[in-house]
Amino acid sequence: MALSEKTKQAFLGPLNANNPVVVQILGICSALAVTVQLKPALVMGIAVTIIVALSNVVISALRTTIPSRIRIIVQLVVVAALVTLVSAFLKAFAYDVSVALSVYIGLIITNCILMGRLEAYAMTNGPWDSFLDGLGNGFGYMWVLVVVAFVRELLGSGTLMGQRIIPRSWYVANGGFYENCGMMMMPAMALILVACVIWAHRGLNKEEKK
Amino acid sequence: MKKFDTNSNVYTVLYATVLVVIVALLLAVVSGALKPRQDANVLLDQKKQILASLNERNLKDARAEQLYSEQVREVREGELVWYEATVDGAHKYVLPMRGAGLWGPIWGYMALNEDKNEVFGTYFGHESETPGLGGEIVTEAFQKSFNGKHVLDADGQYVGIALMKSGQTADGQDQVDCISGATITSKGVETMLRTAILPYAEAGWFGAQPEDKAPAQEEVEPVTEED
Predict the structure, then answer these.
(1) Is the pTM of this model over 0.90?
(2) Which of A129, B14, B135, B206 could form a disulfide with A125 if both were Cys (CB 3.0 to 4.6 A apart)?
(3) What is the chain A residue with the closest CA to B58?
(4) Does the residue A13 lie in any domain?
(5) Residue A154 contacts by C-beta under 8 Å, 6 or more apart in sequence?
């Protein structure tokens, strides 16, 4: 299937030049909450990707019928319904995942990326483009979360995905020289790391500096 | 397409009504259809948690069902519920617990040896503690640090187990290291170990205690990665 330039841009744009987190500065709240460890960050990224893509399709399909005065409410109802559905299916068919997600699944409803994409893209574009736009934004959100969580988990706990990376014998408590960086566990550190990502991203994308 | 005023009041009200009814129906149908499966999952998860407190961890679903039916039996007496298990010929008691962490509920199971004093194993779960901090109570390393501790004091009174910062010593009860950076969750576990078991102690569950059972202050091995 040949993709038009616009369609391609809908998917690829949010990964880099138009990234929801580092360029549009959306979804920062959850970037703080779920990036202490890599695993919840990854799971949250996947869950948001699925929900943004699906809700984009639904809203895009309904877009000509939605009364503009209550469009935000309609969007919210669709998102909340989808999140509840996904949560119910996870509980029934992938209980372990639903336990791991626990509170995050509810947090998705309040993720600003969702409402942002619905309002800015799905309301004015076709379902297929909207689907790709949702996927692109989901993945764009996910990679930033993963980068932040990677640094925080490695330096804050000495583990990755729960697996020990920094040997126990290095720790001061066991007669070594190493201490975990307690700062990494603090929410503030997530902001500083996101800022570092934005810094690096702007440095690499010179054309943005206007 | 015919021009249609999607901004009229009638249309807006109808649209909202129809949308909400459709969504409500959809959610009700799905929730009703999936309920049995979800309940089965919750029940299986509970069995796995009880088995985890008996140090049988990371079991496959079928194996967990089989082990549970072989080893564990639920006992109800009035308000009190506990589980009795037979592991390698030895009799164990498992007590369920509920408490509060920092952000939400925490719960757990504590398996005691036949003397109803020495801890055989524990399991803790939580809903929304911070990953890497309070969330560490689900790790095997933390849960195993309770093994071999005693829940009764020298007089046979139920006192639970204290969670202390390393270097501090609890008075008159056994202790384990709390999780650094997660003081409130750790204290939540400590409180849960006391308050959730108190009804059992008050009902005489622990019975008349043998004397001279003073738990020696044991050398506590570090559980946490930090500090």
Answers:
(1) no
(2) A129
(3) A96
(4) no
(5) A160, A165, A166
